[in-house]
From TrEMBL:
Belongs to the class-V pyridoxal-phosphate-dependent aminotransferase family. Csd subfamily. The keyword Protein transport does not apply. It comes from Coprococcus intestinihominis. It is an enzyme of class 2 (transferase). This is Cysteine desulfurase. Its cofactor is pyridoxal 5'-phosphate. The lineage of its organism: Bacteria, Bacillati, Bacillota, Clostridia, Lachnospirales. Its EC number is 2.8.1.7. Residues 19-390 form the Aminotransferase class V domain. GO terms for molecular function: cysteine desulfurase activity.
């Protein structure tokens, strides 16, 4: 199977006028995912966990089968460790509010990398403000490298929580999670990992990584929008209070209070996105069918072709490592004298979809001395021809903006 073969599975990609390379923001959906959502609403649509009639039981079974699929996909030990959320952001906020506010205090430190997406930074700023804990930053090299010295120094005996993305959504670099976890656990801290950019592109084993929490979004791995996952170590989740309260997350309620449901349901207040869960399971099944060996090989080939092409274009600067293997399909770049929004609009006029701005990682861009950038991000269904068209369009930008080349 080639990228062109897999493209046939994606209805939106049949539009030949669109070159979609904004996959770090959201991926396209294969027909199998669209069908799974459609099947749920046509044949299983009832409130899961609420009724004992056949349709509700079928909806419940669909939800729990999806939970088992996620458990196996990330190698968790139990379905009880898999909590359905709306997205990565909600999962990280759940940990911040439920674990952070109840476990941190004045004098404690929270270690984060300068590369974090705002979703894995703002919740910890909130926790620091409300508890008196202090936020400490692990600053990277210009290529995204976190040195051993930085890890050892910033994560110290005062550190109680470490928040880190496995893959930067700007630089594409893969952070040394094993080293970070080892140091964090050495000093008694827990690790919260943002897996939004890693789970769709590489095998992720939460047991091998030994992280305490990990969140990711369904829509970035070709699943529906509005469904995400928080993995949490069972012993930690059991001691945490609920994030949201209301229907379904209770065992019993009196006038005076409530007894909350067991894991994972105490963290799933209200009606869960059962159709989204079915679509997420279908997306995981599809990814497994494609297999990560092919995915990583194809995305590396695309990244290498793009970086080689951009290197030949004057006044274009790629952020991060010079090695395509350290980009995980993500290329953020600037064009001298041209605002990234203009770059994006010119590319869009050529039918090429990219992202421009600070990519919800403003502290990182400020640290690197870049106000904003343009980002192209590839998925295995992209082709070398699309990369060539992208590079050709970038090469024309300064001329089209009135610069003499």
């Amino acid at each position: 199977m080639t990228a062109s073969d897999y493209r046939k599975d994606f209805p939106l990609l049949q539009n030949e006028d669109t070159i979609y390379i904004d996959n770090a923001a959201t991926a396209q959906r294969p027909q199998a995912v669209l069908d799974a959502v459609k099947v749920f609403y046509e044949t299983e649509n009832a409130n899961p966990l609420r009724g004992f009639y056949p349709l509700s039981l079928k909806a419940t079974e669909s939800c729990e089968n999806a939970r088992a699929t996620v458990r196996d996909f990330i190698h968790a030990t139990s379905k009880k460790e898999i909590i359905f959320t709306r997205n990565t952001t909600e999962g990280l906020n759940l940990v911040a509010y439920s674990y952070g506010l109840s476990h941190l205090k004045a004098g404690d430190e929270i270690a984060v990398t300068i590369m974090e997406h705002h979703s894995n930074l703002l919740p910890w700023q909130m926790v620091a403000r409300q508890t008196g804990a202090e936020l400490k930053f692990m600053e990277c090299e210009t290529d995204g490298t976190l040195t051993d010295e930085t890890i050892q120094t910033v994560i110290n005996e005062k550190t109680k929580l470490v928040a880190v993305a496995q893959v930067s959504n700007v630089l594409g670099c893969v952070n040394p999670i094993e080293k970070i976890v080892a140091r964090a656990h050495e000093v008694g801290a827990v690790v919260v990992m943002d897996g939004a950019q890693s789970v769709p592109h590489m095998p992720v084993d939460v047991q091998k990584l030994d992280v305490d929490f990990m969140a990711f979004s369904g829509h970035k791995l070709m699943g529906p929008m509005g469904i995400g996952v928080l993995y949490g170590r069972k012993v930690l989740l059991e001691e945490m209070p609920p994030f949201l309260t209301g229907g379904e997350m209770i065992d019993s309620v009196t006038r005076e209070g409530a007894v909350f449901a067991e894991l994972p349901y105490k963290f799933e207040a209200g009606t869960v996105n059962a159709a989204g869960a079915a679509g997420l399971a279908a997306a995981i099944d599809y990814l497994n069918q494609v297999n990560f060996d092919f995915i990583q090989e194809q995305e590396l080939a695309l990244t290498q072709r793009a970086m080689e092409g951009l290197a030949k274009v004057p006044h274009v600067h790629v952020m991060g490592s010079e090695d395509p293997a350290n980009h995980t399909g993500i290329i953020s770049f600037t064009v001298e004298g041209v605002h990234p929004h203009d770059v994006s609009e010119i590319l869009a006029s050529d039918g090429i979809d990219v992202r421009a701005g600070h990519h919800c990682a403003q502290p990182l861009l400020t640290y690197l001395g870049v106000h904003s950038s343009t980002r192209a991000s590839f998925m295995f269904y992209n082709t070398l021809d699309e990369v060539d068209a992208f590079v050709k369009s970038v090469a024309s930008i300064r001329r089209r903006m009135g610069y003499e080349e």
